[in-house]
Amino acid sequence: MPSRRKKKVTALRNVNLVPLLDFIVAVIPVLLLSVSFTEYVILDASLPVFADDTNIVQQEGQEQKKLGLTVAITDDGFVVGGTGGILTVDGSGTLIKKNNGKYDYDLLNKKLAEIKSNYPEEWSIIIVPQSDTKFQDIIMTMDASREKIDIDGKGIIKKKTMFPNVVLGGGVL
Amino acid sequence: MPEINITALLDMFVMLLIFLLINFSAATYHSVKASGYMDFPKSNADKKPVEVLTIIVDKYNVIVEGKVVFKHQKGVVKEADLDDSGFKIEPLYEVLLLQADKTKYIASVNKKLKSEGMIVLQMDKDLPFYFLRQIMYTAGQAEYNDFKFVALKK
Fold first, then answer.
1. Does B24 contact chain A (CB < 8 Å)?
2. How far does chain A reach from its first CA to its final CA, in angstroms?
């Protein structure tokens, strides 16, 4: 006469897995159809607004200058400016010139990071594209101005927010 | 007749099922409708898309709520569709105005809704800024001032 333990083991071995398999085979195509393997993201942008005086704000009785940071996208490259002046890059002019015919987003990102270190409380940037600037170039410029991405020696990515509030200029209003 | 051992196959399917379920929960932005005439720009942004009114601007059409509002050629709009300033696109303005009224009505009933003035723009990566400017201006006239550009994650 077989022992009770032996009976139990035999019963476990004979579990009918076919219905479970049927279920999984039915579910997998449904999931495969609905899963998106491409990830979408969004970027914020707004229209310029009029104000009586956007350059000077009164704060606790003190006059604080606003940066009014502006990046113009031109055929030759980027022109970075602020209230009362245009940034000079390495003494060679006001342009962040194109590199081999392509916009130099890395250099723009670096220069904006320098500006951010001098104006840590500034979060806004005005991007002024040309009429024929492609949408992709505008998005890339927004990327370059939004955050500084550093990868340290250990391969850890560090993101530092720079100018996330983007206003698209260029005669919208 | 010998029995086929399906345990190994089942193991594989269970793993696949778990992988797909994880992706499914992390996914999917249903408002992004694939258009055959659309190449999304690429971005390294992190923000997830939101479900609000969407304007789809592909290589040939401008689509709102699944309906083609007007056609364009590489970002050039027919003069008949523009107002005197050359910025406002009349057919788009009319549709957006209707949508804005709908949103206001829904917001008056559902106080939790906070999408007023927000609009998602899916635009082809090669279209020029002057076309984007016209669309933004038109949306601004219909009281949509908060724009969200959709891009593919790099």
1. yes
2. 94
B117 part of contact set with chain A, CB < 8 Å: no
| Chain A contact set for B28 (CB, 8 A) | 34-36
Chain B interface includes A141 (CB < 8 A):
no
B24-B121-A103-A123 Cα dihedral, nearest 10 degrees:
-90
Q: What is the pLDDT of residue A85?
A: 60
CA of B72 vs chain A CAs: smallest distance (Å): 15
Confidence check: pLDDT of A4 > 60? yes
How high is the ipTM of this complex? 0.81
Domain ranges of chain B: 30-153
Distance CA B11, CA B18 (A): 11
Consecutive H or E run containing A137: helix A135-146
Listed residue (B135, B108, B21, B151) closest to A44, CA to CA: B151
Q: What is the pTM of this model?
A: 0.77
Mean pLDDT value of segment B26-51: 74
Residue A9's contacts (CB-CB under 8 Å, 6 or more residues apart) are none
Mutate to test the interface with A, among B18, B129, B147 (most CBs of A within 10 A): B129
pLDDT tens for residues B62-86?
999 888 999 999 889 988 889 888 8
Q: Which residues of A touch B88 (CB under 8 A)?
A: none
pLDDT for A36 beyond 80? no
Is the pLDDT at A48 greater than 50? The verdict is yes
